[in-house]
Amino acid sequence: MAGIVSYGAYVPLFRLGSGTVGWTAPVEKAVASFDEDSITMAVAAAIDCMNGMDRRTIDGLYFATTTSPYVEKQGATTVATASDLRRDILAADLTDSLRAGTNALRAALDAVTAGSAKRVMVAAADMRVSTPRSEFEPIFGDGAAALLIGDEKVAVNIVGSYTVANEILDVWRSYGENVVGSWEDRFVLDAGYRSVLPEAISGLLNKYKVEAKDFAKVVYYAPDPRRHGEIARRFKLDAAQVQPPLFGTVGNTGAAFALMMLVAALEEAKPGDKILLANYGDGADAFILEVTEEINNIRDRRGIKGHVAAKKLLRDYQMYASWRGFVQMAAAARRPEMTMPSASAVWRERDKNIRFYGVRCKNCGYEQYPPQRVCTKCHAKDNFEDVRFSDKRATLYTYAMDYLQPVGDPPLVIAVINFERGGRAVTMMTDRDINELKVDLPVEMTFRKLFTARGVHNYYWKSMPVRM
Predict the structure, then answer these.
(1) What CA–CA distance (Å, rounded) separates 221 from 217?
(2) What's the CATH number for 343-356+392-465?
(3) Residue that wins the pLDDT comparison between 121 and 421
(4) What residue spans of 349-420 are helical by DSSP H?
(5) What is each CA distance from 132 to 129, 262, 318, 345, in whole angstroms?
(6) Domain residues of the chain, as ranges?
(7) Residue 467 confidence (pLDDT)
(8) Beta strands 217-220 and 274-280: pairing type?
(9) Helix (H) or strand (E) holding 160
(10) Which of 110, 218, 434, 454 is paired with 120 by a 20 to 30 Å CA distance?
């Protein structure tokens, strides 16, 4: 039976919370940094999901989001390339619905069941923006989840599913708009969420002749904490059955929300547990999942717990507002405007910049980045093989801070890092506290944006302190 082979997640480091100057909400939420978007978060979740696995065994990647950085350009290919998957895979975007994550899960399950693929990665990520000080602002959070679907070494069998399609204008974001819109609350809830999600859950229970009490955990989408509690009462769920939502710690992460809660449930699941998963958005999806013994072999992920525990509060709300483009921050010094990166150069150097390939000397085994023609250790010439550096740990060799460069989180830190087993790179450092920087600080790589110019996003790998 096909099911979930592995899971992973990503929650940004930064939070808006009670210690943030200007943040008036009584809750905390995760916010993507100025150099993050749904693509970079999906890459982080996918890499967490593939920890210790052979990436060459993956035959497809489905990218689910409502906030793709491009309107016309596939995000899945960027996620797959940065994750260093094979070129001969099926890459597809599933977008425009809060249900995109479970739509992608269903599509991946169908592909594996039909035999057209052995393993398919589902990476869901969202970075939805609300109007400042609106009712949505304390609720919306940023994050990502990834599930690897396959038919061997299955940790969670997907026993069955039920789907409802429902045409309704409840929440939306039109072409050219950045913030989410919504209709009147009573209509949105009565004609939408309160009727459609229970319809899908009830349909699933009736189809497979099971009851709500049969499940160890029930994981389901909700637009806010109050509505989440309403569903639990409607189906008379015990408190222990209800997977705690991420409100107050991460927030509603849109297309990734239900899958992120599922990852949190799997982190605590035991073999034999039955889990009900339900998601909402222009209809609803519901699934019956059953945990197997293989779950114990994939516990070494950061997942939700690891990422939620490692966090930093933003100093002030104004910084967040500048990251989202609500306010314009004055630059410390005048600089020429960024120019659009050369499309031909990006294509030509995609292995070095997006896959983050260096080389390994076939003569002495020394590894180095960036790729060279002559080995710096044994001086052999043109005798190398590609090696991935994106998942290598490194240490900080030296660094410099530029207070004049216009960046979202000044100062700009330029770091020279030494990789394990060889290789030295000059990188930008992100998600860092300048008071904690020191020589030999352990760092890791993270896929981020360098800048955006004329609608083109220039992605690259940055270093950051190891997230503990």
Answers:
(1) 13
(2) 2.40.50
(3) 121
(4) 350-353
(5) 9, 29, 11, 38
(6) 3-323, 343-356+392-465
(7) 93
(8) parallel
(9) strand 156-165
(10) 218
The backbone torsions φ and ψ at residue 94, rounded to the nearest 5 degrees and listed phi first, read -120, 115
What DSSP line would sit under 205-261, residue for residue?
Answer: HHHTT--GGG-SEEEE--SSHHHHHHHHHHTT--TTTBPPP-TTTT-B-GGGHHHHH
Q: How far, in Å, CA of 200 to CA of 206, rounded?
A: 10
Sign (positive/negative) of CA torsion 80, 429, 345, 340? positive
Spell out the residues 6+ positions from residue 63 whose beta carbon is closer than 8 angstroms to its own.
39, 42, 74, 75, 76, 79, 91, 92, 93, 94, 104, 123, 124, 125
Tens of pLDDT along 175-192?
888 999 999 989 999 999
147, 105 Cβ separation under 8 angstroms: yes
Residues in a beta bridge with 453: 456
Nearest to 246 by CA among 304, 314, 198: 304
Neighbours of 431 (CB within 10 A): 20
DSSP 324: T
Instruction: Kindly calculate the radius of gyration of the chain based on its CA atoms and give it in whole angstroms.
Output: 22
Looking at the domain covering 3-323, what would its CATH class be? Answer: alpha beta
Beta bridge partners of 286: 162, 278
Chain segment 371-415, per-residue pLDDT in tens: 989 998 999 999 999 999 999 999 999 999 999 888 899 999 999
Is 462 buried (19+), middle (13-18) or exposed (0-12) by CB count in 10 A? Answer: buried
Q: To which residue do tokens 């690891």 refer?
A: 306
Burial environment of residue 447 by CB neighbours within 10 A (0 to 12, 13 to 18, 19 or more): buried
Task: Report H helices in 50-99.
Answer: 75-82
